[in-house]
Specification:
mainly beta, Jelly Rolls, 6-stranded antiparallel β-sheet, globular, Deoxy-glucuronate_isom_IolB, EC 5.3.1.-, KduI/IolB_isomerase
């Protein structure tokens, strides 16, 4: 199973993690120049368009959302996102050069109504302590209850020299109230762009024990295991994340017991 997807230069739409019969998720990147149009259909998937940079208007089966996007890149402001239901036709009209968006796709059973999440509606959380501090932006999380089928979407900004998705956690088994089963995809941006971060992946039984050097624009699929991220000193590390699972949208991550004492330090 492929987990790590290195960045490839492209223009237009690039399908990075392609839809597959047994997979619940897919991921694409879209790059457009001013006044160009991208047209597509969602099919069996609900789609969250997260604008990474630039401005665009989006039409979804007659629902028109104009002049969306307020940031030049992911490090210069909160996101704007558009929710596209399954079985929908949509058009994205770029209104600036260097328009870029992530297409987060999740297989859905129910069809809902399109909507926009604007920057002022993004919920900002400050998480962690000491050397595992980060800023987490909820884009479609609690506000998606009753409005989306499965998808959960957000962004994380890891502080330089800090760990993120930490203490190490996983969500690969359905065992509430201790843990819920969710697959996740990360898409990274690094600043300065010529540097790197580190993505770890390991399992309880020790059969998986891997580290990946992640570069600007890379993508990573997390179907199982603990998955902390490390931002080296001098690196601003961002990752877009989205999740989905077969048992609803509730997120209950399970912490690695080896690091359980760190939770006490987050409250002192």
């Amino acid at each position: 199973m492929q987990l790590y997807y290195p960045y490839e230069k492209h223009h237009g739409c690039q399908d990075i993690i392609k839809p597959a019969e047994k997979d619940i998720m897919a991921f694409s990147l879209l790059k457009l120049t001013n006044k160009t149009i991208y047209t597509s259909q969602s099919g069996d998937y609900e789609v969250a368009i997260v604008i990474l940079g630039g401005i665009a208007s989006v039409n979804i089966d007659g629902f028109q959302f104009n002049n969306l996007g307020q940031r030049a890149d992911v490090f210069s402001g909160r996101a704007t996102a558009v929710y596209i239901p399954r079985e929908s036709s949509y058009e994205i009209h770029a209104l600036s050069d260097n328009f870029e968006a992530a297409l987060c796709q999740v297989r859905a059973d129910k069809k809902y109504i399109p909507f926009v999440v604007r920057p002022e509606e993004v919920v900002v959380n400050h998480r962690g302590a000491h050397l595992w501090q980060r800023e987490v932006h909820d884009i479609i999380v609690e506000n998606g209850d009753g409005r989306v089928d499965r998808i959960v979407v957000g962004e994380t900004y890891s502080a330089s020299g800090n760990w993120s998705s930490f203490p190490s956690h996983k969500h690969d088994r359905h065992q509430p109230p201790e843990e819920t089963e969710l697959v996740e995809i990360y898409h990274y941006r690094i600043e300065p762009a010529n540097l790197f971060g580190v993505q770890l992946l390991y399992t309880e039984d020790g059969k998986v024990n891997q580290a990946f050097m992640i570069r600007n624009g890379d993508t990573f699929k997390i179907p199982y295991g603990y998955h902390p991220v490390v931002a080296p000193p001098g690196v601003r590390l961002y990752y877009l994340w989205f999740l989905a699972g077969p048992h609803g949208r509730q997120m209950i991550p399970y912490d690695d017991p080896a690091f359980s004492d760190l939770r006490k330090l987050e409250t002192t």
